[in-house]
Amino acid sequence: MKLIISTILPETSIEWKWPLLTAIGPGSKISPKKLGAFYFAKDLTIVKKAQAYRERPNILLFDNRAQALAATQKKKLQADVILVKEKISFFKSKNAKKQATAFAKNIAAITKAGGVFIFHTPWADPSWYDQLVVEISHDLGFADALKRIDGKGFGFVSPGLGKETRLSTLIDLITEDLQSGKLKPRSPVGFTLLKPFKTVTVKPGDIASFLKKNKHRLDYTGEKRTGTSAKNLKWKREKKATSQPIAKAKKIGIKKARKATAPKKAAKKFAKAKRPMWKMAKKKNGGGSHFKPSTNKKTDAPKVVARNFKKIARPSDLLGGRKEKFKTKPKPPVAAMDEREVAMAADEVEKSTPRFVQASFVKKGEKEKKLESLLPETDYTMNVWVGQESVVATARGEELDTAEFFKDEKVKKVTLKAEVRCNVSDKSLWSTIILPREGDSNKAKFKINTGSSKKQFKAEIFLYHEDRLVQKNMFRIDIRKANEKGQPKKVVMKTEAMLRKNLDNLDGRRKFGGSIVIPDKKDANKTTAGIVGNKPFGLLFNRAVNDLMTKIRGFIEEAANDEESNQDDLNDPGSVKLLKRLAANGNILFEQHLKKKTLNGPLQIVSNREDYTPLEFAYTFPPPNSDAELCPNAKKALKQGKCQNCFNTKAEWQAHVCPFGFWGLSHVIERHNYKRKEDDNRSDYVIRSEPNKNIDPLKVLNNAFFAASNKVDNGNKGLVKKVNEAIKKNCASLTQANKWDDWKQLVSTKKPDNIILIVHLEEDENLGVDAFEIGDELLPVTSFDGDYMNADGEKRTPFVILIGCEATKVEAYGFDAASQLIVDGAGIVLSNFTSIRGRHAGNIVIKLVELLKAAGGAEIDFGTIILRLKQQLLAEGLMVSLSLLSHGDADWKIKI
Per-residue b/e over 135-152, b at no fewer than 16 CB within 10 Å? Predict the structure, then answer.
């Protein structure tokens, strides 16, 4: 959400509770039952009509501002946060910010609220509210949680609202009450911890000491987790005193409180007061006279003391003229104020001047200037920065829309990590860029020497934010002698990958554990670029790694096509053997190549290789012994989506293989692929799978399109019909086609929100590219464009499920086809990287639609749903599920 935050409300008492209390304001058409119907909202909040509460609610919700003012004035309601859902037309008004500011101050004074939010979202009431609860349970303050919802709005907050509404703050208060004996739980409570990840059940008497020791390890990232633990303690905050300045004001009265105001404000209030009687008085230090207000108690003028300035008497008073009696107009009640009359001037957020990633070179002893080439065997300082287009910049990349990044008025600057990998240095060079709200960032400086053997300086420039790649640029400039004949080639800086074009609320997005950029085969002797745990990361991508990747892929294909074993049973000897082989080789990958880098969040993989690089199979637990058994709790853990941490010693771990040791079964993996072109265009490819701030979540299973190859039924008679029935059972509308021309025509009229393809893939002999087969008709992948997907401008692009039943070119399949769909407008794509049998492909699709339907209308991010799908399929023994890949941004929201 584009939420403009202003910290203008006074400090107040926040009485945050858990579960949250949400009240529907009088006159609102919103149904409490409907608002709190979804999974998280139902479990972690209580929703009622405002009149039904005997205590102050946390959130008070209204349909519009007029309704809110009328209800709060009449009913004298109070709440921690006032939430007003306005129509979109309000935000199109030029005076929207001014009117919103006046309204916020007015209603905050009535309700004693610490936050007032006026917003619009295209999401339905149950959806946005459920997502708000999810984000609060993930330890976000109220304003930051609201930003995760699509739409726009204004927020007016007190200084302490962000901290006071975080779940971790409540945990601290709960801990204090437990230690003091105010809170005495009667039942054990379960907690999920990180580092290492495990779930523990704590006895009632031990909860206080447990929280004191482990509060920094509590896991807020998963579904409910710590939120559920806090709810089970049934805790409510006692009403606390307000901050000292306000408490003092209440004790000493408003007159004395005004003594502490600044001189100018005091002068203004004096001018508005009833004009007092004046009298002459001698200065105590002698000499001259001055006038001061009379202390006549009969006058109703307020007693005001203003310091550091003199009051000037009127000429008529000095000449002994008749003293006039002045009557002051009574101050209207706050609730009756017209917001147009009390509106304060509020400057609109100015659009920032475009800013770019730029680079320049400075030779020692010379000034910075734009260069057309570099000298050989010369020391240079390479500067990289983000800012407005500069005359000294040698080249620049594509624009970064940084305005969205600073929509929270409190954010004054952000930190980015810059990496330069160049052909004149064996090391990856790192530095930090501090980007302010306006103007240019600092210049990250990199020392280089051009050497004597290179004819061109080539570099890759990476920009990261919180362990996630934002932009990658390819830079090239000639190296030539000063007197060399001919003209140098044009300096080129191409944006190859731009995964966060808008930088839309990066701080509000899911925090990643790392980002790895995998080089092209042409760069096989170079290390990968990346950042893990906010630290530089380098993986030597040599032939040994390629061989290891090929071996892992081969194990899965062999097991998937073995008809004598692996009969859909996780405990089958063939299944256990596959897991042990993957774990042993995955541990080599983790220890020898990934240098035991641990992830504390999702992993982003950006690749320009044509073949698949299965970093999902990095195995972080101790490698299993040859006679190792499957963890006895593996199936249960996979169904629950979390490791049971069954073992304590290395020997115990080595005696078993655990699915949660693999990155791909314990972390969300976000994949992006791009193709490098050799031309000199400024931008040769930009990732298009980024969630857009102005678009709703991806709606699925409302209007689905389904097609399958005739080969799917080979050996599995009736499988296509079975899949069709399963989709139809869980989908509002289903359309099936057997010919590509029919498909294209139906898409143009029915506009699908998701596409399910169980296809046969084979090479088109005339074009030399893969072709999709539905029915018995082939379509080259290069011909499958937006016309086949309803990828039309601002309209929602679909969720594509692309499962191949007999893929013959494993090296090209995973990315050639899926990446083409991303380029053509698909939001996200689910595919597989190995050959797969028809019955397995059908079962994957059936399980996915059932899993989506079971979400019950809640919005789930794409990364989480795919991780859950793989875990549940593996629990059922479908080993080929290990080959499932997701393409696109993990932060896409999916909604039924």
Answer: bbbbbbbbbbbbbbbbbb
